[in-house]
Request: fold
Amino acid sequence: MRILEIIETRIEIREFEKKSVDVEVKKEILEAGRLAPSGRNLQHWHYVLIEGEKELDILSKLSPTGRWIRDSNFAIVIVTDPKYDFNELDAGRAITQMQLVGWESGVGSRLYTIKKPDQDKAKLEFNIPGEYHITAVVGFGYPLNRVAGKKERKDMKEIASYNQFGIPIDL
Ligand SMILES: Cc1cc2nc3c(=O)[nH]c(=O)nc-3n(C[C@H](O)[C@H](O)[C@H](O)COP(=O)(O)O)c2cc1C
Reply:
């Protein structure tokens, strides 16, 4: 698949098949995160791979919008250093690379974020040092249903301009 095709067909899923993801694919997903670009190449991130029913259940209780992670095959907790004001941008780039590499092997994913009081709880649960920030939690696994790749997105003319903001683009 071309990269654009991977982007076009990937949608974020909440329902996962009860099937283990091959360790080689997990390694590739982590490698995609390791190789991500970061501001000043600081690579201030840390990725905690989480597996196991008990652990995924703990993750599912850390966000009201992340209950679905219980059914994923594994999760990666994306930890960054908030003293860099671009930390979330860096994390976003790493997450995107991981998700695209996963989808290349048919592994679907979705992410959620953890709000303030639960941040501290999550850090305690997974031994994450207090000075770090859990930017997101990404759940991975094979989709339960066939993924049709239908995206709800704004039209190009609504989100892009030519030379000046608001000048319609016509490429
Ligand atoms: C910063 C960010 C936070 C998100 N938080 C949640 C969340 O808390 N729970 C959830 O189920 N999905 C979450 N998502 C997934 C989005 O809802 C999803 O990316 C969006 O609906 C587009 O999905 P699609 O690519 O399948 O069309 C989040 C995505 C991003 C980028």
Q: What stands out?
A: Strands lie at 46-50, 74-80, 108-112, 133-141, 161-162, 164-168. The radius of gyration is 17 Å.
